[in-house]
Design brief:
Blueprint (H helix, E strand, L loop, with lengths): L1 H7 L5 H40 L4 H26 L4 H18 L1 H16 L7 E4 L2 E8 L3 E5 L5 E5 H6 L2 E3 L5 E10 L5 H14 L10 E7 L4 E10 L3 H18 L19
Antiparallel strand pairs: 1-2, 1-5, 2-3, 3-4, 6-8, 7-8
Length: 277
């Protein structure tokens, strides 16, 4: 020990005191990190619980929870570094230079942060909405600082960066209270068109999920190659869209045949000509 003190130019016992100081600082820094990270987790959960109690938008809750956790962790790391003797002026200058370099390297990440803020501010969708974003469909599960998380109908988890999401085309299927359901039903040439339209009108009137206002529409849409196509349009509550769509298809398939109406399919007639020569 004395040889080390002489080598470092310390007085007697100085090396031991230095070790004790370093050890104490290290222990305090570790405690700061442990307690600070625990506090970040507790506060973020507390904020989430309070905002949920006030029925705040779910997307804003996840955003603030993530922002709070990251902000506290950064402050804790800075405090721990200060405890270890890192000069704040030097640390801030180093952090600024590192931030500039990181910002240039991760400019896309910053755009994702801005995109997250835009999504929460303009609210093109919220947690629970079913959306189509850039050709990807799913239910919005979370809106985080940098990403939005969707769940597909077959339970795949899609993580999408907020920058492209905010700047791209978004189709929100559940934002409006009601939607229009469109069908096209084909009957064979020669079938009774009026009978088919009357049947479809009765199906619509008997289904209480199809709204009376706006009025449903039934009309001849197209004289196709193999069928006479009837266009049907009705308005429903958004949550009833798919049940009504599938139920109407099933009812048409089962009851048209019972009423003598044929649902055609493409056919090809081949005529063979016998050449006696």
């Amino acid at each position: 020990m004395k040889q080390i003190e002489e080598l470092l130019g310390m007085q007697s016992g100085g090396f031991k005191d230095a070790l004790i100081d370093i050890g104490v600082s290290l222990i305090v820094a570790i405690l700061l990190l442990v307690v600070g990270f625990w506090l970040a987790r507790v506060l973020s959960k507390t904020i989430e619980r309070v905002l949920k109690a006030r029925k705040t938008d779910e997307g804003l809750i996840t955003f603030l929870r993530s922002m709070t956790s990251i902000g506290i962790r950064i402050m804790v790391i800075i405090s721990a570094a200060t405890q270890l003797g890192v000069e704040m002026t030097s640390f801030v200058a180093l952090l600024g230079a590192a931030g500039l370099a990181i910002g240039m390297a991760f400019s896309g990440t910053l755009s994702n942060l801005a995109g997250g803020v835009m999504i929460l501010f303009f609210k093109p969708f919220k947690v629970g909405d079913y959306v189509d974003v850039g050709g990807i469909e799913g239910e919005v599960r979370e809106i985080q600082i940098f990403n939005s998380i969707l769940t597909t109908v077959d339970n795949k988890i899609i993580i999408m960066p907020n920058g492209p999401v905010a700047n791209g085309t978004i189709i929100n299927y559940t934002m409006a209270e009601k939607r229009r359901v469109d069908w096209t039903f084909g009957i064979a040439y020669g079938d009774n068109l009026k009978k088919a339209k009357d049947l479809l009108q009765s199906f619509i009137e008997e289904d209480s999920r199809i709204l009376k206002e706006p009025d449903a529409f039934i009309g001849l849409g197209e004289l196709a190659d193999s069928s006479v196509n009837i266009v049907v349009r009705g308005w429903v509550k958004t949550e009833d869209y798919w049940p009504v769509f599938f139920d109407m298809n099933e009812r048409v398939y089962t009851e048209f045949d019972r009423e003598g109406l044929n649902i055609p399919f493409p056919q090809l007639d081949v005529n063979l000509i016998k050449n006696d020569g």
